[in-house]
Specification:
single chain; mainly alpha; 2 domains; about 65% helix
């Protein structure tokens, strides 16, 4: 699953939303008018940066833990599949 944030000028936003909603691979498209405007408050900017860093940390943790787990599961599946094939062929 991929989450995507698009910030666009107001004059082309409706065209972009129409294009995104017409794509079969797009599961959910939400429009938040004015959310892409530059923040004048430092606290909001810091909060956004902290949220971004947290998201990146979670993605890194999932990648670090998830890839070896996925490989182990796939290796186990492959061994079972090969064993079943050997039993079928009598080898």
């Amino acid at each position: 699953m991929l989450h995507l944030r698009v910030v666009s000028p107001p004059d082309i936003t409706s065209s972009i939303m129409l294009m995104l909603r017409s794509e079969p691979a797009v599961f959910n498209a939400t429009l938040l008018p004015g959310r892409g405007q530059q923040s004048r408050r430092g606290r909001e900017a810091r909060g956004s940066i902290l949220q971004l860093l947290l998201n990146l940390a979670v993605l890194a943790a999932v990648a670090i833990v998830g890839v070896p787990v996925r490989r182990a599961i796939w290796a186990r599946y492959t061994r079972r599949s090969e064993a079943a094939d050997l039993q079928k062929t009598g080898g």
